[in-house]
Amino acid sequence: MIARDRNWLLIFAVCVALAVVYPLFADGYQLTVIRDALIFGLFAASLDFFWGRTGILCFGHAAFFGIGGYIMALITLNDAIPFGSLLGILGAVAGAAFVAAIIGYFLFFGGIRGSYFTIVTLAMGVICQQAAVSWSSVTGGDSGLIGIPPIAFDVGGVHVDLSQDLPSYVFVAAIVAIVVLALWSISRGRWGTVLTAIQDNEVRAAALGHNAPLRLLVTFILSAAIAGLAGALYVCMAGLVAPDLSGLLLSTEVIVWVAVGGRGTLLGPVLGAIFIQRAQQTISSFNPSLWPLLLGCVFVIIVFVLPDGILSIYARLKGLFKSRRHAP
Amino acid sequence: MDFLVTTLLNALTLISILMLVGLGLAISFGLMNVTNLAHGEFVTVGAFAVYFVQSIGGSFWLGLLAAPLAGAVVGCVLEFAIIRHLYSRPVSTVLATWGVSLILQQGLELTFGLGAKPVTPPIEGTFDLFFTVYPAYRLILIAIAMLTLLGVVLLISRTSFGLDIRTVIQNREMAEGVGINTRRTYAIAFTFGAAIAGLAGGLVAPLAIVLPQMGVNYLANAFFVVIVGGVGSIGGLVAGSVFVGGLTSILNYQISPSLAQAIVLLAAIVAVRLRPNGLFNGASR
């Protein structure tokens, strides 16, 4: 096991430990705040899995979050459907994956990469939000759908009911931990190595026998499916779904979470999501329109000052000390 | 018959606007390889310039002069402050220009306040076109857009600055070798594209809902124009505008605007999938 992996697992273990002891010190409200932030952290990790490994930026990832949310809402609000929560989650994941498969197929096999991909996904996000607003007979239009029940299901004779704060927190934290660990083991294994090769030089990777478009497509679908899962979880916890959930602002924010937390680290984006949301709540309480303005400034600052995220400060400091030590 | 002519003229209005907005994007995205997500804000700034001039008592035509100037100023500052430092980092350009776009949107909202801004057209009333009756202002819009495009074609094909641009686009290193200041050429070309987008914003202001967030729709559509039409030629720009603008106007008659937009997006994606080489000119990939 190389040192980098050991460090990652160590940080992961610390985060899990913090998540486990947190309920001992927090009241119900604080638990729900962290729970919702963790769901967005899962969403950020899903984007990072694609962007961090392939170097291709998806600018409409909230579309998948929103699709997952709306599917979950529609299924659980329909009393005729049994096992609403489980089927809802399945439907949300499948729906987001399906849309990603269609769009990804045309783009990746059409040779679309880089900026072109970014722009098409940007437009996809715009259209998803418009569709959510205008298709009001199904989506409830601007006001969205309310009264979505909390997740509840029976598994192996055990009744799971997430209407209380603590069980829902534990459920979300466990899912986030499992998914992040799974994504990490995929991306450090052979699959991730091939993706890195494709990112470095796609022609060469293809010449070595790797089906580059297929790899990118499957990675994109997986990323979208997890975004859909995050969306489904979120609407059940919040109890409502609105067009904002598929909107451009959320797509933008998730990019900031990943960029601030550190692209390609999977854990960084989760932490980035938690901390930036905290900052957002504080700032928005002064003046709601100040937040997008600040977000814009953060983008510019990241690009010029911290291209590798907050965590890179540590690496840079370490590099600084190392070079000092080796100096004669 | 009159239905057909009206649809055609509606399409022509949209196509004209798309061509003007797409022109600046064709320069920055297609030729300089810079993904400028703040391009839609040039349109917004142009529209707000007309609103501002009208609100302090100026005429629409004065506003229409101010619109490209406002676009040019914003574009010039953006190029100097951000884009020229990031020519070799495409993803960073995307992030930074998106940040600028957010800053401009919120800046406009903080300055001018919430809500749509009214802009009155210079002429009310309609014009009898023999087949049909059509709003006079839209005819003027089409005429101005066509004249502007003609001017740009002449500028690029007939002047020495146009020759510089064409040289830099074909081969940047060689252009530097023969003594062309490529940074300056890029900066001027970028500013020029921003000015044209500002003009488009000014022209569309009386027809559109003038909001700080109006730019993003033009941004998405203009990118489709450039992607579908292919980069590097005025012909591609026209073809892309006709494809996106024409399809949108025809669909808008039958179905809701957002569904129409979704279909146009899908059509554009399929078109790119089917003709990846014909629609993209290798240089920009």
TrEMBL record, chain B:
Q: Where in the cell is it found?
A: Cell membrane
Q: Which GO terms describe its biological process?
A: amino acid transport
Listed GO MF terms: transmembrane transporter activity
Cite the CDD domains for this sequence: TM_PBP1_LivH_like
GO CC term, one of those recorded:
plasma membrane
Q: What is its main location?
A: membrane
Q: Which InterPro entries match?
A: ABC_transp_permease (IPR001851), ABC_UrtB_bac (IPR017779), BCAA_transport_permease (IPR052157)
Pfam families, A to Z: BPD_transp_2 (PF02653)
* Matches recorded under NCBIfam families: urea_trans_UrtB
Q: Which family does it belong to?
A: Belongs to the binding-protein-dependent transport system permease family. LivHM subfamily.
The name this protein carries in UniProt is Urea ABC transporter permease subunit UrtB
The gene from which this protein is expressed is: urtB
